[in-house]
Amino acid sequence: xxxxxxxxxxxxxxxxxxxxxxxxxxxxxxxxxxxxxxxxxxxxxxxxxxxxxxxxxxxxxxxxxxxxxxxxxxxxxxxxxxxxxxxxxxxxxxxxxxxxxxxxxxxxxxxxxxxxxxxxxxxxxxxxxxxxxxxxxxxxxxxxxxxxxxxxxxxxxxxxxxxxxxxxxxxxxxxxxxxxxxxxxxxxxxxxxxxxxxxxxxxxxxxxxxxxxxxxxxxxxxxxxxxxxxxxxxxxxxxxxxxxxxxxxxxxxxxxxxxxxxxxxxxxxxxxxxxxxxxxxxxxxxxxxxxxxxxxxxxxxxxxxxxxxxxxxxxxxxxxxxxxxxxxxxxxxxxxxxxxxxxxxxxxxxxxxxxxxxxxxxxxxxxxxxxxxxxxxxxxxxxxxxxxxxxxxxxxxxxxxxxxxxxxxxxxxxxxxxxxxxxxxxxxxxxxxxxxxxxxxxxxxxxxxxxxxxxxxxxxxxxxxxxxxxxxxxxxxx
Length: 478
Hints:
This protein is an alpha/beta fold and 478 residues long. The chain is built from 22 helices and twelve strands. It has helices at residues 12-21, 31-34, 41-51, 61-64, 67-82, 106-109, 120-138, 140-147, 153-163, 184-194, 215-224, 232-235, 242-258, 280-286, 327-341, 347-354, 361-381, 383-398, 405-414, 422-428, 431-443, 461-469, and strands at 3-6, 28-29, 54-59, 87-92, 173-177, 206-210, 263-268, 297-301, 317-321, 420-421, 447-450, 456-459. The chain starts with a strand and ends in a 9-residue tail after the last helix.
């Protein structure tokens, strides 16, 4: 899949070159990186058009007067009619160009929505979206796999209930907390589509923020989205007081709102801290009155937000927690992916594989890929790989506690049964110590509190299975 970047050389430095730098070289036909030296330009254009699925025309006064661009447009028209070219994406990059400019071919001006896109970073993101659409059109199975989504009804219903509540403005910030690879971003994307906040084929860059990141890093990530033409160096953030930095971040978010963009953040402790609270500077941003009612920021957080810590922000913040897939959801996702791959299993084989699954969505994908690669018998012979896959996930969750013997004793006891009351555990362990340990285990998604006011606690299935398989025995006194 390639996108042909048709442009005037006069627009390279200020616009098209920036777009090209944001796209992978193997995904574009762009003279500086694609044309062979020593070859005739016309032959290289023809070859590039023949290899392309998407034709991107950067419309400016210079490009409309360019003979080369006219030849490229004519070549694209022929290939579009012949079916080898699938998408035309015209981008107006010159404010002086009107949609009815006589130099624009009629088949373009009459059939395509010609809009001004002043920021090359935004244009690059939309070209990525077109390439993705083309890839899905050619390989529909890729789209079905990426969009495979089952269950999570409680969280989706919570999203809908909050966003449909007309007694209060739509939340500026939505937080989905949970361990890595549990499906936080997938839930966010499905919620956005269910709420009609984005189109089905919308491409979203994900902004990573680790626990050492600051408001300056957050601003830098927003600038990377093309929220402004301002240069990061020119902002001189090291000299700005915090309130000015907050104001800069708010202005960038307002700019993104005018472009109908959403911000998805993969947060490892910067925005939502280990204490399950919002960073104070981030509170100042999302509670700013200028952002009220604009659903802009969606955070896939390492830690679930403590509802009590954000109660005073209920008009600006929505949050939910995401745990393992329950047994029914695992089976449904497994069945859905088998259907996409065209794999039919006997009931016995289906149950054998399903019983090995322990709640992480990517574990289900792994199991289906194993069947697709090696067949049913071969996958059954390698079923230990599914168990080992789960073991790696569980050991990742347990890593923060590997030297904490008190916490490990609580975990080993919890593995002995499906559920324990907190009251019972307080009779076994030191109550003050237990409260702290349970809080840490919940924060790290090793266990969950259930029942009225969290009266009961259970170990997540993946960890319970791991503890039992590795014979992590109880201390003698327990």
